[in-house]
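Appendix B.2, paired examples.
Example (i):
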Amino acid sequence: MDTRVETNRSATALRALKVLEVLGEANGPQSVVNVAEALGADRSTAYRMLMTLMDAGYVARDARTGGYRLGYKVLTLGRSLLARDERNELILSCLHEISAETQETAHYSVLDRDAAVLVLRAKGTQLVTVDFQIGDRAPLHCSSIGKALLAYQDARLVEEVIAAGLPQMGPNTITDPARLRAELESVRIAGYAYDELEFAPDMRCVAVPVFEEGGVVRGGISLSGPASRYTPGKLKQLKDDVVAASRRLSRQLGATAE
């Protein structure tokens, strides 16, 4: 182990960030006890973390329950990531084209360490949908967008994902490392990925990578819906639409070949 890397880490900072993650993933305000349990720490440590983050504006106390939740200052951290620059405008324009053509909600997600994070979307007109929200994270091994992104990364990242475990999420989740490697190879050859009841028991999805200058894949486009409506035939039709749109967007973002 490289001890230099270890000594450059702050355990306190990592724990404070974990507090923010715990509050961000919770359904409502959390007590000190809940936060302490999630941290694997004692109550006094959790309380000090919460008080420090409150002083900084990143955590707030809920007046009704007395629990703790994220403060609105957290929003300022992501402002630059979601800024409407020329690149994001191109992506949004592509998503709106897909949505208008398919009536489905189109999502653009980026690779963030061990997950695909939804950062942009264009709302469709279908009444029955899978309502993913900006900031939602999808596992790399069992979501269509996760597989579409992971397939084009360094083999080392694939092995890190496998080493971290391949938990069963849906009835068809790929949990065997050899099968996942083969699946990712198939995605690279085909240029798209399906989720056939892998992430959830009643959902199918299709995703494609978006290539940028130098053939780099940082993000991708996906469509998701209930299995009752996303039949295999419907999924193939949507795949053709999203592949064509992704190719146009890739060219706009500087890709010369896919």
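Example (ii):
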Amino acid sequence: MYVAVKGGERAIENAHAWLAEDRRGDPSVAEVSVAQIREQMTLAVHRVMAEGSLYDPDLAALAIKQSRGDLIEAIFLIRAYRTTLPRFGASRPVETGAMDCDRRISATFKDLPGGQVLGPTFDYTHRLLDFRLAAEGGTPESAVSQQVAAAGQMPRVSDFLNREGLIEPAGEGEATPPDLTREPLAMPADRALRLQALARADEGFTLSLAYSTQRGYARNHAFVGELRIGRVAVEMDIPELGFAIGIGEITLTECETVNQFTGSRTEPPQFTRGYGLVFGQSERKAISMALVDRALRWEELGEDNEGAPAQDAEFVLYHADNIQATGFLEHIKLPHYVDFQSELELIRRLRAEAMQATRQEAAE
């Protein structure tokens, strides 16, 4: 057994060396830098930060490089590193109403204070390969400057509906919501905990659930009331000073959906809300999160549970985390020799017994 362990160690070391060699690729090709990944693969960097629960573009870019572009592996690296960091305090809730927006759109009202700001988006691009990008060293043409929404308080689209009482009031939430990164997920989960889980959930899984609600599995028809992408200030209370100071700013994507609601035994007919908020520019994830959030609210709104996957909080939250899913999935490729041998012997015995019974029936 000792020899087998030593042989296994050598094999693992060689596998690590081979992995490093494959990660580097052809040595004659210039190595990609962390700075290049951070600046030119921003959407991948933002996803790793969002699902890794750590806002640091440099570390996210490093994780992408180390993982050879496997974003789930990069998210795993970021979460593992996050556990080593000391926690010395908590910031104030960010004020997204004061966001300095690069992109701000609404599918419900055309004319908005501050205007519709298209910003950097694939929405209006042709899905055609641009072979000019293969000509390395090319400099993109200067973008036509747009009117960017000014920093400061901007009224939300939902405020327009709220003036007439046509949309449910925005919930204030708990003073101190639970922290999913420090305490394990437990059921039943309130909305604050569900939103935390969705914020770091796998984008593809969340997207699939959101799509299912649009196809009728929960009858959840939604409009994008407002989608914002931009920078917000992060402030922290300093007890010694007696007031809060700014410690930096982060980029966020926020989505609030406006959903149909015909009323229930406890609530009048009105529009309801779905909400999504994630690190970086991740609008697909934010919209998906808002749709799933609304589907999970069926009970508090007095709606019927139609048995849709997106309405099952336990199903959604326990299967949304890609790190947990990956760990459980990939553990089956590790050695299970003893378990398999027992299954193999069982199958052999059952087959032998079946064959013996067949012979006896034929003899009779």
